[in-house]
Design a protein that fits this description.
The structure is a single chain. By secondary structure, the chain is an alpha/beta fold. It has four domains: about 1-120, 3-Layer(aba) Sandwich (Rossmann fold), CATH 3.40.50.720; about 140-220, 2-Layer Sandwich (Alpha-Beta Plaits); about 230-350, Rossmann fold (3-Layer(aba) Sandwich); about 375-445, Regulator of K+ conductance, C-terminal domain (Alpha-Beta Plaits, 2-Layer Sandwich), CATH 3.30.70. The protein contains 14 helices and 24 strands. The protein has helices spanning about 10-20, 35-40, 55-60, 75-85, 110-115, 125-135, 210-220, 240-250, 265-270, 285-290, 305-320, 330-340, 350-365, 435-445, and strands spanning about 1-5, 25-30, 45, 65-70, 90-95, 120, 140-145, 150-155, 180-185, 190, 205-210, 230-235, 255-260, 275-280, 300, 325, 345, 365-370, 375-380, 390, 400-410, 410-415, 420, 425-430. The protein has a six-stranded parallel beta sheet with strand order 3-2-1-4-5-6, sandwiched between helices. Strands 14-13-12-15-16-17 form a six-stranded parallel beta sheet, sandwiched between helices. Strands 7-8-11-9-10 form a five-stranded antiparallel beta sheet.
């Protein structure tokens, strides 16, 4: 596909880098970005303004499948999308980064439709939604809703003293309608099997029904002495992300304390929150101790400065905060912060980049969710109507891939080895990004055994 990306931003370069292997990418901009970064891009470059018809025509906009506006200027992004659409681009995606450019109540779909743009991506809003989705599930490192909420994906630490610790998985009677799809121990990720023994500190990823996932969390992943969850949080940073998270938590019944260094911003935020808004430096350990931050179970560091967020998080850890969620907008910092012990790290830029890339490739590859900073995917595939009946155990893959759910009409099945698959079933497969194509080939093309007697169809 011919893809045009407008911008000299880190987001524009990252999108180009992720798409250039499989697509014909043209980068439109001033060409004044970091030379080392530009040299890594195997893309065509057109120098000039992305709002100018001549420049867009030089980038061959008439044959453009997707046009992505990812400059650091929202107005330029909007105008260039409209111009590209008028000049023949089949699909346009616009990034809007400035707080307050549109009201928080406008959803992206309605905004895009009103502007005549196919898709609008607002990184700050996306990051706030991701944080809320995770924070409001106690203990979660990640949480995704799939198949209109009928299927949940949970990533959670195995706590010290949890029932899952120590025993082989084959001897653990897990809840019905749950499958463990990955275990991460340090840097090693594996697909659990019957011989797997879990240790405290392991990070388990599970897929299941809402009820099954709820039971897994409370009965198997948490310490027997965990106690009641307290719905209180400290938020450091009162920008667009921090204020959106604070309002979202309060609407869910949480008690929130927000710390912001800018006095005028504090006064503005205080009019929208019922909780405490403090004017101060969130990296001041004396202030954090005075406010009893160590007694509050959750701290969310979402200033616009990665280094400050890390410092705040490390101070909070030293004060005994149980759960820490941190913003890291430089993509290289996402994994770095996790390696130094931060529980959950999220990036507004990372969220935007993955959203755009999934928009470009998702329709073809049927990517339904991403986690582990994009390294792991949930992909959907449909078994051909002529596919013979076959039990899941006969489709075990020699790659990093596992069938996590089966959608059969309106029915959702969380499979085990004995579950029989039929032609027309939709499979949700959890796999590594690197094994995505191999997983499709394996599950759709692998030779299968005859189905059990009488299993001519799903009935």
């Amino acid at each position: 596909m011919h893809v045009i990306i407008a911008g000299d931003s880190e987001v524009a370069y990252s999108i180009a880098e992720l798409l250039m292997e499989d697509h014909e990418v043209v980068l439109v901009g001033s060409g004044q970005g970091p030379q080392a970064r530009l040299d890594r891009l195997d893309v065509e470059r057109v120098v000039g303004s992305c709002t100018t018809a001549r420049v867009l025509e030089d980038a061959r906009v008439k044959r453009c499948g997707v046009f992505v506006a990812a400059t650091d200027n929202d107005e330029v992004n909007l105008v260039s999308c409209i111009a590209a659409r008028n000049l023949g681009a089949r699909r346009t995606i616009c990034l809007l980064t400035r707080p307050g450019f549109v009201t928080a109540s406008d959803n992206e779909e309605a905004l895009a439709e009103s502007l005549g743009i196919d898709a609008v991506v607002r990184p700050a809003d996306q990051l706030a939604r991701e944080i809320l989705r995770i924070v409001t599930v106690p203990g979660a490192l990640d949480m995704e809703h799939l198949v209109h909420g009928k299927v949940r994906l949970l990533r959670h630490v195995v706590e010290e003293g949890a029932p899952l610790v120590g025993s082989q998985l084959r001897h653990v009677k897990l809840p019905a309608n749950v499958v463990l799809v990955m275990n991460r121990r340090g840097e090693e990720a594996t697909v659990p099997n019957g011989d797997t023994r879990f240790l405290a500190g392991d990070k388990v990823t599970a897929v299941g029904t809402p009820r099954g996932i709820h039971e897994l969390r409370y009965r198997f992943l948490r310490s027997r002495h965990h106690g009641r969850d307290i719905e209180k949080a400290t938020i450091v940073g009162g920008g667009s992300v921090g204020s959106l998270v604070a309002r979202g938590l309060e609407s869910s019944g949480w008690e929130v304390k927000l710390i912001e260094v800018d006095k005028e911003r504090c006064e503005e935020i205080a009019t929208h929150l019922s909780g405490i808004v403090l004017n101060g430096d969130g990296s001041d350990i004396d202030l954090l101790e005075e406010e009893g931050v160590g007694e509050i179970p959750v701290l969310i560091a979402v200033t616009s400065n990665d280094e400050k967020n890390l410092l705040v998080s490390l101070i909070a850890r030293s004060l005994g905060v149980a759960r820490i969620i941190t913003r890291a907008d430089r993509l290289s910092n996402e994994r770095l912060f996790e390696r130094v012990g931060i529980d959950v790290v999220r990036s507004a830029r990372g969220a935007a980049i993955r959203t755009v890339v999934r928009d470009v490739v998702g329709a073809r590859r049927n990517i339904r969710a991403e986690l582990e900073h994009g390294d792991m995917h949930i992909i959907e595939m449909e078994l051909p109507g002529s596919h013979p009946a076959v039990p899941v155990k006969d489709l075990r893959a020699p790659i990093f891939a596992i069938i996590a759910a089966v959608v059969r009409g309106k029915q959702v099945i969380i499979p085990n080895g004995e579950t029989v698959l039929f032609g027309g079933d939709h499979l949700l497969v959890f796999c590594s990004r690197a094994d995505g194509d191999a997983a499709r080939e394996h599950f759709l093309s692998v030779p299968v055994k005859d189905g059990p007697a009488g299993s001519d169809g799903p009935g």
